[in-house]
Amino acid sequence: MSARKPDTLGGRAAIVGIGATEFSKDSGRSELKLAVEAVQAALDDAGLAPADVDGLVTFTMDTSPEITVAQACGIGDLTFFSRVHYGGGAACATVQQAALAVATGVAEVVVCYRAFNERSGRRFGSGVEHREPSAEGAALGWSLPFGLLTPASWVAMAAQRYLYAYGLKPEVFGHVAVTDRRHAATNPAAYFHGKPITLAEHAASRWIVEPLRLLDCCQETDGGQAIVVTSVERARDLPRPPAVITAAAQGAGRGQEQMTSFYRDDLTGLPEMGVVAGQLWRASGLTPADIDVAILYDHFTPFVLMQLEEFGFCGRGEAAGFVAGDALPLNTHGGQLGEAYLHGMNGIAEAVRQIRGSSVNQVPGAARALVTAGTGVPTSGLLLGADGCHARVSAVSGRRGAPSLVI
Amino acid sequence: MTRDDLDVDPDELYGRLKAYEGRTAASGGTGRDPVNEPMIRHWCEAMGDTNPAYPAVAPPTMLQAWTMGGLAGHPGGSARSEAYDELLALLDDVGCTSVVATDCEQEYPRPLRPGDRVTFDAVIESVSPRKTTRLGTGYFVTTRMNVRAGDGELVGTHRFRILKYAPARPKNAPKPEPAPKPGLTADPARRPRPVINRDNAGFWEGVARHQLLIQRCLDCATPRFPWLPGCGACGSLRWEAFEASGTGTVFSYVVMHHPPFPAFDPPYAVALIELAEGVRMVSGITGVPYDKVRIGMPVELEFLRVDEELELPVFRGAEA
What is the number of domains present in chain B? Predict the structure, then answer.
């Protein structure tokens, strides 16, 4: 419950399966394998299959990422993943996170896990010593010895395949850079305030990792950004016009890795953002045509194009032309390429300003905004709306069977 | 494995360590601040000690606090002696590089009160014979500090024991790579090493035998790369490794230009290879200039000796 009022979480979710490995002083196997075995044992106990799972929660201290546990368990798309900090203090909170997700329909089956070699591996108080590399380190380890070393290079691998699949040249990425920098040029808070670029300047900028040029890559920034959330009822008593959270979603795809999802699908899209898009549209009842402004995560330009396609703003392979046509106000703060690279949090702030009507590049009458989070990784997205204008789902929920926002 | 293999003659070493007994560990130390009420109050709050006797007198167990230099150290330098530094350096040199404080004993001849100014000196009281604990093998070193106030009145003694040790490796953890040849460790131009753990060690054992090993699920037969303990298709934990044919095509590639990578020589290409068996892996391309690599290019496995420790599976391209 909140610090002041009783909550409504009780009685809405239940624990249906428990499972564990044997408990020993020396498991003889990796922490990842222990996690996978425990998750599978709990699913067996619950009478559920890996394919039923759409949420995973663990401790920040755990070395086995949710996506890697999913990958090794045969679990597909995830719509909810979360971690809780502070060691053992996280235990019951993992179940609280799961219950929040289940109670709101964000996920249907969530598995909470913690697995470690606490006795035979690293021990508290033992100082610095040799430690077996984690699953996360191992995932990246398949690329580093060959010289694939940077975020730009991991994005470039998919970007090259995208260009090949649709018969495009690297210059098409320039449309995103030019759009972002045009908006940054009129934003006094932007690093590149007053510095627009042209397509020719993009095409003339030096290679970072082919097919990405300097102007395809976002800047690096020092800064901070914070966001306050409360109930819509309370929001109405506060000084600013509320930006109502119309829908919020997380997504991870089958075979998901962190920046190195090279081993799945055709490498021309962002399946995890497809998972986010499907939830946002289903939950809100909105369509791309309803969106007044989009703030799409832009650490590298190619993934902006793929996001437009995952959300259905245009067809596959058509996004560069779509951006060039300027049909959708995009990254009106200048994006991370132009304003600042704050891991997407500054993009949420811009969407709020658009809903408030206070952006320096205000879209007249903007009432619905789409914001996305980092691409190439398990990700998330938001639909924000002006008060009273946030969703259509309550009118259609019966027909679609989607969860109603009106509880 | 328990380590009892410090690379020295134990008797000879112990003789050298014993010689430090009785020597000065610290001398002429003065407390950075006089005993004072604010520090007493902070200490009591942190410890949750509500004894009403404080802060009129200092809690006895604050004894060591009055001798500490704070984060910046003692102004004008530490009171620690050269002999004590030498003893610790000698232990470092034989591999006892880790340290843990094990226990302390204190005596309080009289209470300290606000306004007291402390001075202190310490002696190396004893060095134990070689001991093996769960943490590792090493030596217990005990120092005894005398804390004085005013005109030299003894107000406390502080006997402090540490274990200087060579850390034991966790049982069954993979053995660290053999010590690299001199010159290699410090070389910034070394390529990043493969990240090897119990879930993927089999792959790198295969590379050492010049075999490219892929996993295959024993339940649904789906081939699997990268190596993981379970099947992404069906979740089965039963698998076997089999040798790939070594033929494939370039599925995608990049050309690395910037930033400068010390171990590499940009521009160079890195490719995502689709093997004939249907799985993909990131690898290097040989036999083709970086600007001639293309998607769809057929490639053939070979093994590249990178340095004395590292061998990698790479792919030779056939230029169209």
Answer: 3
**Chain A contacts in chain B segment 192-221 (CB below 8 A):** 192-200
Which residue of chain A comes nearest to B198, CA vs CA? A30
The pair of three-digit structure tokens given for residue A359, joined into one six-digit string? 């952006």
Average pLDDT of span B240-266: 95
The alpha-carbon gap from B124 to the nearest alpha carbon of chain A, in Å, equals: 24
- A254 at interface of B, judged by CB pairs closer than 8 A: yes
**CA pair distance B59, B66, nearest whole angstrom:** 11
**Which residue segment(s) compose the domain that B204 sits in?**
196-243
- Distance from C-alpha of B114 to C-alpha of A119, rounded to nearest angstrom: 46
Q: Under an 8 A CB cutoff, do A71 and B257 touch?
A: no
Q: Which of A263, A265, A300 to mutate to test the interface with B (most CBs of B within 10 A)?
A: A263
Question: Is A13 within 8 Å of A98 (Cβ atoms)?
Answer: yes
Residues sharing a CB contact under 8 Å with residue B95, sequence separation 6 or more, in sequence order? B6, B7, B166
State mean pLDDT over B31-51. Answer: 90
Q: What is the pLDDT of residues A166-207, one digit of tens each?
A: 999 999 999 999 999 999 999 999 999 999 999 999 999 999
The predicted-structure confidence for B184-226, as pLDDT tens digits, reads as follows 344 567 899 999 999 999 999 999 999 999 999 999 999 999 9
Domains of chain A: 31-141 (3.40.47.10), 232-400 (3.40.47.10)
